């Protein structure tokens, strides 16, 4: 087990992508569990998907803040690609811990809209790294730990499963995956050059209430509810390591508190205080079974009628460009270093999503 070496209490924590799915849930978990805590959130509120869901998440945060006495929350609407904004935020708020979750997500969207991936995932992350670097200027304490989102997409079409962080990941099959691998390389360089403790987290298919509408389970629900036909790729032979959002957040919170140690090598130069972990369920589910459970829970929550003809609304189709047939996380390192393994079953997670969906769209 790694020892905790970063206290979150009474610290300023910067969360980028704070109105996003993982970001907003992380902010709420920190507000509930760390007292006091001072959170600065940044999000550009772009229209990649329904902004009302992002506003819903921010409203949930505001409600929680209203119940706090000592903790604070500050939201900044803006892009991490805006260097002046990032530099100003670091200068004014002086974050001790930075969690970079802001990114343009989605594999298929990167094929048709590559520009936004370069802007957010590369330029934006560079701005964060530079701000972390200069947080130590003039002998300041600076950033104690930079935690950033990578993705299971970096594994590309690796044949070996489960995916382990030691695997070679030099053959991305989408621009999105290439930007995430680039983030890991950039973080490693900055950790080596400037002794910035950084940890990358490769997330595996995150789902749950108030999730991203571009994700399969949410898109399927929208289409089934509208009476449309859903397409199940690779003729239903895809397997995904679905990870419930609360499990992801618990993993992120534990990682935040244990930064890679700063130490020098035999040459007297810093050994990069750098780490990468998988966060996944390490239990891949067949897509057809996943959709079957989803349908059952949508009927149970009243989103679909009990006599819904599911077979009439599904179509098995070939693989999409940039997709991979299986994602499967080896989470041994996470378990050994943090004593943590995601526990939420697929049925339990989809039930919570279906209940939220019924309430949100009633």
Automatic annotation (TrEMBL):
Gene3D superfamilies: NAD(P)-binding Rossmann-like Domain, UDP-galactose 4-epimerase, domain 1. Keywords: NAD. The keyword Isomerase does not apply. Residues 13-279 form the NAD-dependent epimerase/dehydratase domain. It comes from the Bacteria. Pfam families: Epimerase. PANTHER family: EPIMERASE-RELATED. This is NAD-dependent epimerase/dehydratase family protein. It comes from Dorea formicigenerans.
């Amino acid at each position: 087990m790694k020892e905790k070496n970063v206290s979150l209490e009474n610290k300023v924590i910067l969360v980028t992508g704070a109105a996003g799915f993982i970001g907003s849930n992380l902010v709420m978990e920190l507000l509930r569990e760390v007292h006091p805590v001072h959170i600065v959130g940044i999000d550009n509120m772009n229209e990649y998907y329904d902004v009302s869901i992002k506003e819903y998440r921010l409203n949930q945060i505001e409600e929680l803040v209203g119940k706090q006495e000592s903790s604070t929350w500050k939201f900044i609407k803006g892009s991490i690609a805006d260097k002046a904004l990032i530099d100003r935020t670091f200068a004014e708020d002086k974050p001790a811990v930075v969690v970079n979750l802001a990114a343009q997500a989605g594999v298929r969207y990167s094929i048709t809209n590559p520009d936004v991936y370069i802007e957010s995932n590369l330029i934006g992350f560079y701005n964060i790294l530079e701000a972390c670097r200069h947080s130590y200027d003039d002998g300041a304490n600076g950033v104690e730990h930079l935690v950033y989102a990578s993705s299971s997409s970096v594994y590309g079409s690796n044949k070996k499963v489960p995916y382990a962080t030691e695997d070679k990941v030099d053959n991305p099959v989408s621009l999105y995956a290439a930007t995430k691998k680039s983030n890991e390389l950039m973080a490693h360089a900055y950790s080596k050059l400037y002794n910035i403790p950084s940890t990358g987290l490769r997330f595996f298919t995150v789902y749950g209430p108030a999730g991203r509408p571009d994700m399969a389970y949410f898109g399927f629900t929208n289409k089934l509810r509208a009476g449309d036909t859903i397409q199940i790729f690779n003729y239903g032979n895809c397997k995904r390591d679905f990870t419930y959002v609360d499990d992801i957040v618990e993993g992120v919170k534990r990682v935040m508190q244990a930064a890679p140690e700063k130490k020098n090598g035999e040459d007297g130069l810093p050994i990069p205080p750098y780490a990468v972990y998988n966060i996944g369920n390490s239990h891949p589910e067949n897509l057809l079974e996943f959709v079957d459970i989803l349908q059952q829970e949508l009927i149970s929550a009243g989103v679909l009628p009990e006599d819904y003809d599911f077979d009439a609304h599904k179509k098995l189709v070939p693989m999409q460009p940039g997709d991979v047939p299986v994602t499967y996380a080896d989470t041994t390192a996470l378990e050994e270093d943090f004593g943590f393994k995601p526990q939420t079953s697929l049925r339990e997670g989809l039930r919570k999503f279906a209940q939220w969906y019924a309430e949100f769209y009633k």
